[in-house]
């Protein structure tokens, strides 16, 4: 087990035991191992490094109560992260080289927790340069019409975010055009471009950009995405499509 698997598992046990949903822990509570993620990394002997434009550490917590249909599959929980813009940042960050996953279930109750920990450590700081990825991938089908709800919203309160599309690069990006439209009719989707410059939650990095629809997408519809910009001063032109579930 890696050190990050250990920190993620320990916090998952705390979350399940106490019904919490964040990265903070309260001394004296069951399964306490550290006040916050930074403290838990330090206790595990993990030293993170600071690199301009990259996250030195990140933690995502998924806390839920099991329904009568039983536990979701592990891939369903990963999809929950990918279907939320800020959860997606952890899994698709090209700089991420160290990742840990923890899961905990109370033996006498329905409470469950999954925790994903990442850290940028010495030796991995330069990774990701010249690398990029988009989500959803070209040709993806069966996607949700809206972003999975969480306590962090990229758009103002009262707006229901549609399913976001995003670029994740290992170098700084500059976007000149980022649009989405119904592939069949050409009708544009009203959406907001979210980058590090205007992210209200201050979580987007300089290598990330997202187009967030300002309302749920239509079910059973194929959408076309076009993106123009620069990645580390190199021109980029991308066109791809995806389809929502019926």
Task: Describe, in plain words, how this protein is organized in 3D.
There is one protein chain. The chain folds into two domains: 3-119, Pathogenesis-related Protein p14a (3-Layer(aba) Sandwich), CATH 3.40.33.10; 132-244, Immunoglobulin-like. The strands form three sheets. A four-stranded antiparallel beta sheet has the order 4-6-9-8, with helices on one face. Strands 5-11-10-7 form a four-stranded mixed beta sheet, with no helix packed on it. Strands 1-3-2 form a three-stranded antiparallel beta sheet. The N and C termini lie far apart (41 Å). The chain is globular and about 55 Å long. 16% of the residues lie in helices and 33% in strands. It is of the alpha+beta class.
Main traits of this protein?
246 residues, alpha+beta, Pathogenesis-related Protein p14a, Immunoglobulin-like, 2 domains, four-stranded antiparallel β-sheet, four-stranded mixed β-sheet, 4 helices, 16% helix
Share of helix among residues? 10-25%
Radius of gyration equals 19 Å
Oligomer: single chain
- Just name the CATH architecture of the largest domain: 3-Layer(aba) Sandwich
Write the CATH homologous superfamily of the largest domain.
Answer: CAP
Q: Number of helix segments?
A: 4
Q: Compute the average pLDDT.
A: 89
Structural domain tally: 2
Beta content: 25-35%
| Main sheet characteristics | 4 strands, antiparallel
Q: What distance lies between the first and last C-alpha atoms, to the nearest angstrom?
A: 41 Å
Structural class: alpha+beta
Strand runs, count? 11
Tertiary shape:
globular
Reported by name, the CATH topology of the largest domain is Pathogenesis-related Protein p14a
């Amino acid at each position: 087990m890696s050190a990050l698997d250990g920190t993620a598992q320990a916090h998952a046990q705390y979350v399940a035991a106490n019904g919490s949903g964040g990265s903070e822990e309260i001394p004296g509570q069951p399964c306490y191992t550290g006040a916050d993620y930074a403290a838990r990394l330090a206790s595990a002997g993990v030293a993170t490094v600071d690199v301009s434009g990259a996250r030195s550490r990140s933690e995502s917590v998924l806390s839920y109560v099991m329904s009568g249909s039983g536990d979701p599959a592990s891939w369903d929980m990963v999809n929950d992260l990918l279907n939320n813009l800020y959860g997606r940042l952890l899994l698709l960050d090209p700089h991420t080289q160290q990742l840990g996953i923890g899961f905990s279930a109370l033996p006498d109750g329905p409470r469950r927790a999954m925790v994903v920990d990442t850290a940028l450590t010495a030796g991995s700081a330069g990774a990701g340069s010249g690398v990029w990825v988009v989500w959803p991938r070209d040709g993806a089908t069966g996607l949700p019409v809206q972003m999975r709800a969480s306590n962090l919203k990229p758009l103002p309160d009262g707006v229901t975010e549609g399913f976001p599309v995003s670029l994740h690069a290992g170098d700084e990006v500059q976007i000149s055009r980022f649009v989405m439209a119904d592939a069949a009719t050409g009708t544009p989707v009203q959406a907001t471009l979210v980058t590090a410059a205007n992210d209200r939650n201050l979580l987007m990095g300089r290598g990330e950009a997202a187009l967030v629809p300002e309302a749920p997408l239509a079910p059973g519809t194929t959408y076309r995405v076009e993106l123009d910009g620069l990645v580390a001063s190199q021109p980029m032109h991308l066109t791809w499509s995806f389809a929502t579930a019926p």
